[in-house]
Specification:
131 residues, alpha+beta, 7-stranded mixed beta sheet, 7 strands
Length: 131
């Protein structure tokens, strides 16, 4: 599978809808969309940022917690790499095209908070409860 073949407009729509419902404080709608995201990511491929064959870990707090960047499509990946370059994090970064359960051991790590989808734009953390 090639990076240009990866398209996930439905996931991007879900993320935008969660933000909209969040602004309206509509928790029931957010939970419904999160369930749709859970089903969607089980069946669809994303671009996961790696370094030396392992997922890139971005520190999220001072106590060892981290998130892993993933992208919905080639454009978002390119923008994410530009974002990384601004933060001097772009060296040695590669990607794999896989489902989010590809790195199964991540879910077992108590410091793993989830995947951050499309870090350079309207991003969303798919936390471990959705995996």
């Amino acid at each position: 599978m090639k990076i240009e073949d990866i398209k996930n407009p439905e996931l991007k729509d879900h993320i935008n809808m969660i933000y909209m419902h969040g602004e309206n404080q509509n928790q029931a709608a957010i939970e419904k969309i999160e369930n749709e995201i859970r089903d969607y990511i089980k069946n669809n491929y994303l671009i996961i940022s790696i370094e030396e064959g392992k997922p890139v870990k971005i520190p999220y707090a001072n106590d060892g917690e981290y998130i892993v960047p993933a992208f919905t499509d080639e454009h978002e990946y390119t923008m994410g790499m530009q974002y990384f370059s601004l933060n001097v994090m772009d060296e040695n970064k590669e990607y794999v095209i896989e489902k989010l359960d590809y790195f199964k051991k991540l879910k077992e790590d108590p410091n793993f908070l989830g995947y951050v989808i499309n870090i350079a734009r309207v991003s969303y953390i798919i936390n471990t409860s959705l995996l």
